[in-house]
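User: Could you write out the 3D structure of this protein bound to 4-nitrophenyl phosphate? I've included everything you need below.
Assistant: Certainly. Input first, then the structure.
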Amino acid sequence: MRSILFVCLGNICRSPLAEAILREKAAEKGMDLRVDSAGTGSWHIGEPPCDHSVRIAKQHGLDIGAYRARQVCLDDAAVFDVIVGLDAKNVADLERMGMANVYKLGDFGFGGADVPDPYFFPGFEGFEKVFSMIERCCSGLLTQLETDLA
Ligand code: 4NP
């Protein structure tokens, strides 16, 4: 089975959304795809996604309430075919760990833009923007996965 790992900083805001969105899109197409997410940081290990991410996911029919944060590790490079960072810092951190097959989510639908970190945004609005960015990029990513990526 093909496999993909999304990586952000905390694994409580952005990458859990990417995980849920891509899993749903793959299921809709009947694609056999393992999808997971992790964070480069260790602050939130074991914690559920942040409230705003749970809420925006629910508004789109996705339940991420049972997800739990974990930290990315070097073994992930051997387990996952494709590793996708949510912003340039995530990608740089993964490459610094020595990982290959690392991509940036924004390259699949947002002109290479970072999916901004909404953790420090004051309200819910940023999460709506982040959700729509991730959704558009995941559509592009899935198309690539169907054709030539890894
Ligand atoms: P995420 O957001 O990377 O999208 O999960 C963050 C969550 C927590 C922190 C930073 C970003 N933090 O510094 O604790």
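Strands lie at 2-8, 33-39, 82-85, 102-104.
User: Perfect, thank you.
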